[in-house]
Predict the 3D structure of the following.
Amino acid sequence: MAKPRDLKTLLQLVLEYTETEKDYEGLCATIDNMTSNKKITDAEYCELDTYFDNNPAPNYYKRVDGWWWNPGNKPPRLRYLKKHISLN
């Protein structure tokens, strides 16, 4: 069994994946894609999903249906990830 990755490492993986992801939608879709592509485990998905739920971004977008920012807009998501990597 592989050693569990810490939250900072997981956030860094999400950042790297986000930077290169084509057809980008948002953080939730990214971690879904990462799980489907075996970049993270189901348990890591749950850890990231819970972290995002517990650490919401400021209300830049109307937060309709869970969107923190306009769908597909990478820059605020990259800033969010970089900030939270530095906090962990």
User: Anything to note?
Assistant: The longest helix spans residues 7-20. Helices lie at 7-20, 27-36, 42-54, 74-87. The mean pLDDT is 87.
